[in-house]
Amino acid sequence: MARRPAQDPSEQHGARSALRDPVGPEDRSVYVRRRLIVLLGLVAVVVAIVLIVVRPGAAAPDDAKDVKVPSDVAETPKPDAAKAGEPVACAKAALEVVPVTDQGSYGDGEFPQLSLSVKNTGKDACVADLGTAGMSFTVSSGSDDVWRSTDCQTNAESLPVVLKAGETLESEPVSWDRTRSSTETCEITRDPVVAGGASYHLSAGAGGAESEETAQFLLY
After folding, report:
1. Of the candidates 168, 189, 170, the residue with the CA atom closest to the CA atom of residue 180
2. CA-to-CA distance for 144 and 141, rounded, in angstroms?
């Protein structure tokens, strides 16, 4: 029987090296280069993020109070109280107030009915308070104001009314009991004013404007 020739010792060592022996450590300079490449890559990513978030040449503020608003980003103006196209409050100069009485003279026991008309003399519609809180009536005799509607007025209410340009409105009448008023006489019986043909004048106010003329009437 033929014998198997003996294997060369050098061949056996080569076979063991290819299948079993681990790869030995590489040179230290290779590891250093790899770490430098990884670190440089991370730095590049961080720089790119900073350039995206922060504008070139802009320094980060130390505090919120140091933040400056760019001139090209102005604050949005706040809208006026009235929206665009809606009427605004009537200017006093635009309101023409005229006092009105239901008669020119009153006999014994007749109470004058006092009212007013208000006209918007402006070119645009506007809003005026034509409620009891926005109106007033005054009866005078010469320089003496003998009666005011506001002296003992209670539960006064505002009533904003839109007046078109050139429009005239007339108020509901207020009855005057022919007595003298003051803020101290609201809870007591008041004395009647002089009659017998005495002349009195009515003036009025509405929406902050006062009548320029008075309405004259006589009491008998």
Report:
1. 189
2. 5
Q: What residues have CB less than 8 Å from 196, skipping those under 6 apart?
A: 219, 220
In three-state secondary structure terms, 108 is coil
Please tell me the distance from the alpha carbon of residue 102 to that of residue 104, in angstroms, as a whole number: 7
Cα(152)–Cα(148) distance, integer angstroms: 8
Can you give the pLDDT at residue 86?
86
Residue in the block written with tokens 């509901």: 172
Contacts 24+ apart (CB under 8 A), 70-74: none
Superfamily classification of domain 88-219: Intracellular proteinase inhibitor BsuPI (2.60.40.2360)
For 154-199, how does the pLDDT look when each residue is reduced to its tens digit (9 = 90+)?
A: 999 999 999 999 999 999 999 999 999 999 999 999 999 999 999 9
Any idea what DSSP says for residue 93? Answer: G
Could you give the residue ranges of the DSSP H alpha helices within the chain? 9-19, 28-53
**Euclidean distance between CA atoms 84 and 35, whole angstroms:** 67
**Beta carbons within 8 Å of 158's beta carbon, 6+ residues apart:** 129, 131, 133, 134
Letter string b/e over residues 138-157, b meaning 16 or more CB atoms within 10 A of that residue's CB: bbebeeebbbbbeeeeeeee
Lowest mean pLDDT, pick from 6-10, 123-127, 159-163: 6-10
Burial class (CB in 10 A: 0-12, 13-18, 19+), 176: buried
| Predicted model pTM | 0.62
